[in-house]
């Protein structure tokens, strides 16, 4: 449950540990992604009125999932516009060796659909050496989607290039670096959360209300360590008066609820990738059911 007290907003913790990967700055820029591989176009007959994508997270965690994930990638239907991996490419106990980043990047890179990925705590924040983990993440996953060709423009935040956004048929997608795990550096966390809020604000302004729904990708399960992100997010979303889906990993078990104090925001925590295949998400123009989920689980006999 999220605590939104004034004290949590004003609480300031002295800087600890390594310097943050990037420093805060208000400047933003637009960047169209490189396009090197053709992605199949969605074949959904209702694609003119809906937008479909697939989401996964917290995978691969175990040796058997090293075999499962490539199969899930190969079996992805082509009716989606893209796939999002919401972080944690390894379990928390495994050392942050570069070979793991290389391995998972190779697995994901075989997707027919473009894959976007945001950081998880296991491959960065919770590493024994977070700075080294972050270097590996940037090397192998930053701008990962540019391996594919697609017909929409992706914009990225100047001070946090891993933060991205794009607009598909009136659905505004925003990816941010919001991780769970331990607070490895309080000053870095505070700075990054502020940058995330600035990115969301600037994205909404740049789209001039040219959207009927927002999908926000983060890794972290909402908790007290993220108060300085979610507390200012609420009035921003209420100002838009459009439904927002916050889709994340971190907790491993499926959750769909509205825990943030407004009916405008739906929260979904995806299944851990070893438990279920990537979930199919369809965004509609129906205000009564803006987000439809198909977990694609095997049907019971």
Protein model, in words:
This protein is of the alpha/beta class and 301 residues long. The protein has a single domain (49-294), classed as Purple Acid Phosphatase, chain A, domain 2 (4-Layer Sandwich), CATH 3.60.21. It is 25% helix and 17% strand. Strand 9 (255-257) and strand 10 form a beta hairpin. The longest helix has 22 residues, at 186-207.
Structural key phrases:
globular; 301 residues; Purple Acid Phosphatase, chain A, domain 2; 6 helices; disordered N terminus; 7-stranded mixed beta sheet; 5-stranded mixed beta sheet; alpha/beta
Give the secondary structure arrangement, pairings included.
Layout: H1 6-10, E1 51-56, H2 63-74, E2 83-85, H3 98-108, E3 115-117, H4 130-141, E4 155-156, E5 164-168, E6 171-175, H5 186-207, E7 213-217, H6 227-240, E8 244-248, E9 255-257, E10 265-269, E11 279-283, E12 291-294
Parallel strand pairs: 1-2, 2-3, 6-7, 7-8, 8-10
Antiparallel strand pairs: 1-11, 4-5, 5-6, 9-10, 11-12
Helix pairs in contact: 3-4, 5-6
Name the CATH superfamily classification: Metallo-dependent phosphatases
What average pLDDT do the residues reach?
Answer: 87
Using the CA coordinates, give the radius of gyration: 18 Å
Structural class, by secondary structure, is: alpha/beta
Task: Please describe the biggest sheet, giving its number of strands, its sense, and whether it closes into a barrel.
Answer: 7 strands, mixed
**How many domain units?**
1
The name CATH uses for the topology is Purple Acid Phosphatase, chain A, domain 2
Question: Count of DSSP helices?
Answer: 6
How far apart, in Å, are the first and last alpha carbons? Answer: 37 Å
User: What's the shape?
Assistant: globular
CATH arch. level architecture: 4-Layer Sandwich
Q: Point out poorly predicted stretches.
A: 1-36
Q: Assign the CATH class.
A: Alpha Beta
| Helix share bin | 25-40%
Order of helices and strands: HEHEHEHEEEHEHEEEEE
Counting DSSP E segments of at least 2 residues, the number of strands comes to: 12
Strand content: 15-25%
Strand order of the largest sheet: 4-5-6-7-8-10-9
